[in-house]
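Shipment paperwork, digital attachment
Item: protein structure file
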Amino acid sequence: MPAPPPTAAWSPVDAHGWPTGVSLERLRGLRPCRFGEVMPGPGEPIPCRPQVFRRPLQWRFGVDWTTGVARGDDQLTGGAQALGVDVDITLRRHLTLGVRYELVGLGLRTTPDNLATTRSQRFLGQVGWRLFTDEADRDAVALTIGGGYALTGDRIGGDGPVARAAISREVGLYLDDANAAAATLELGYTRTLGARPIDALMASVRLGFELGIVEPTNLDELDRPFSTRLWTGGDVFAAPFMLGLGVTAGYRLAGPLHAVASANFVFGNAPDSTELRGLHGTWAVMAGGRLDAGWPRRVPLYAEAKVGPGWVAEDSGLTRATLFDTELGIQLGGCDGAVTLGAVVRSELDGAGARALTGGLALRFALGQAAAPRGAFGRCGHGPDAAPVVYMPTAPPPPPVIAPPSTTTPPPPPPVEGRLDGAGGAGGSSAGGAAAGGQVVVVAPRPQPVVIDVSLGAVFLGGAIEVRIDPRLLPVARLRGVDVDVQVTGPAAQVARFEGELRGVLTREGVRVTGWSQLATSTSEIHAVFTIYPPGSR
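Attachment content:
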């Protein structure tokens, strides 16, 4: 058999001296490392923040889905959908220069049985300005203007120039020291400048990556919630006749009462139709209130009601309607946000009253301390003004060695012998004076190690949603006095952090751990596997 190729030795730091698998956000608040200071060994606390290696170019790219309303041509229904691609470079932290491509679909007026659409391709150059609200978290508000050329069918005006302006809210999640995942919610206005101009108001959801990021200026500041009252979230509607997306912002007024505002789009749902059809749809902007019941304790209930104007794209064109949403559901969450699942009913308000149009399930992912369920909100706080405790990664476990099958029977384990003499002791005698000595050999198996698998929690969406079990709640005091090996399994990006926290708890409790290891898995769950060796088993 040929010898396997040599593998590079594992190192806890990368080529730039940054801890492997540790993101820049996790080290914010630590002091900068001094010149010549070396990172500690695997599994040890990180005392300082290394300098970010400057890359030659900071750039990002993203893909977005866009929905909105279009006016200006008599043949349009008013509905529009688009797929967009954005690429830009960043100059001097705030200024961006980029290009954008859009493939736009526009609905045309026909008969209900003969739906038609037309397409438009748009090529734009853009310039933007980013106003950071938290540069280390990649949170910003951005303003963008641009222009280009649109290839459009002659039926609605033909080819011609196009102009665009947009405002967006950006958030990010660092993956290491200079690269991050990025998400953007954008509201844009476009206008074609041909013979028959078309105006469109469009909302976009963009996902992508930002690469080669320069070191943020606020790394010395601890990460704090942006508000203890304001929260934001994304909505997903799902039902046989209600499929759509939306965004919601809320403000906790007092105790269980919130003021809420939402903007959403539902595919193909019009007041006179429950069919999901192509570019037809309903856009709504609504406001109202929400009440947290606070019970049951684990999955508290909430009720919500909102009202506002809606615009419906039908074969006859774009019409206006007043819509009313009622929602009842349950919520789960903590101090970082909440996930709610509710049943929503959408009605139309007119002179005759309210008429139910459609309904379905609404799933909302809310971010912000104020979104916490009522029972958890009172316990939420900023936390101590102390630097974070982050641990160096540890080496991954070696691959398992598979031994070839053996054709011989392994010898039995050595017995543990104990000697018992008859009649109560060695050399004892019976009542008649005759020797009645005897020997009994007791064979006991060698004590075997005990393996215990404990769940430490789970992470979703790269760590954006996290469910955790505090390791201090584990009965670690019972592990004193024995040898323990610990293996932490879970997503590669999260294993080191969970191991570091568990390592700190076991060290404080005086538990002797003879070996640590990590195992990266494709699941979202984090587990700690304890192998306990009783005295005499090794």
